[in-house]
Amino acid sequence: MSREDIGIRAKAEFNDLLYEIAIKDVTNANIKGKFYLIKYTHDKIREEDFIKFLFNNITTYSLTKEERDRLGPEKSDEIIKLAQTAFSRFVKNTTTGEFGEIILFHFLELTEGAVQIVNKMPLKTSGNVHSFGADALHFSFKDNLKVLYLGESKTGKSFSEILNKSLTSTENHSNDLQLACNYLSDDIPDTVRKEIKDYLNPLKKNKEDFSKVHAIFLGYQCDQLTYPGQSGKELLDKVIAAYKEEIETYFKNIEEQIKTNEKLSDQNFLFFVIPFTNIDDLRSKFAGAINNGAAINI
Q: Is a pLDDT exceeding 60 seen at residue 131?
């Protein structure tokens, strides 16, 4: 099925701001990783462009299909009102995980072709609280395989710390299937909605072509993304080499922690990883833009 056939709405320009970095495979076939680096200008990482993209796509992520259908060039008052609605659904705390959740949404829809089946933002009772359960619920049709993705997003300074937190949270995702059945997104066409709901039914007779994957986004702070005085290809090559060496060490920890966890050792995992220069500063800028309703703080 094409992205239009299943209701994918993430903007493909997200991919234009990232390099995918090849990393050595782990030995456990159930654990896969995709590692990315935000692109550079001649002498500077484009983090501000990246978070501006996220900010500019908040309405796409946060609003329902019915709400987005009310947007249009002749409806300026409606645009302002709905933009304010979209901003109000984000937690204003600068340490919010929702900065990472919108990144995970784009990764799953664009790199895995997995449509978001539950938009949890409109289900929140307040912008002062987080949604409960998994940070993302997506579904893909890959050849003859149907895949349910239960997503988790963690951002912070320490890779090890956010890895530990993400695995702890992942252990508690078993109750999200009922939520998915009750709140399937209206972005998904009716025929596809029916098929997804059928696969989410625990009493379905035949599930030989069905799999479940824990999709985890980790955004951490890396000190090896800037090298004063260096630019161009020399700068990029040095950054990529340092990043690959660092993440290969970290990824061994992922395999070891999952292997020794009785609740997770037989589960499937897909990790998306991005390093940032100063994660606290970026989250603060993102939250500031939402509070102001414009990207003036980015």
A: no
Q: How far apart, in whole angstroms, are the C-alpha atoms of residue 29 and residue 40?
A: 32
Task: Give the pLDDT confidence score for residue 45 in this predicted structure.
Answer: 96
Look at the block and give the residue holding tokens 């829809």: 109
Reported as a single tens digit per residue, the pLDDT across 150-171 is 999 999 999 999 999 999 988 8
Q: How many domains does the chain have?
A: 1
What six digits make up the tokens of 10? 């993430």
- At 204-230, the pLDDT tens digits run 889 999 999 999 999 999 999 999 999
Which residue, 183, 214, 64, is CA-closest to 117? Answer: 183
Q: Quick one: tokens of 232?
A: 């161009």
Gyration radius of the chain's alpha carbons: 19
Distant-in-sequence, close-in-space partners of 257: CB < 8 Å, separation ≥ 6: 163, 164, 167
Query: Is the distance from CB of 93 to CB of 287 less than 8 angstroms?
Result: yes
**Alpha-carbon separation of residue 197 from 55, 191, 200 (angstroms):** 31, 10, 5
Contact 125, 92 (CB under 8 A): no
Q: Contact at 8 Å (CB) between 83 and 60?
A: no
Tokens of residue 220, six digits: 């951490």
CA distance 193 to 61: 19
* Cα(242)–Cα(245) distance, integer angstroms: 5
Question: What is the dihedral sign for C-alpha 64, 56, 41, 224?
Answer: negative
Of 180, 201, 173, nearest to 268 by C-alpha is: 173
**Full residue range of the structural domain in which residue 154 is found:** 3-297
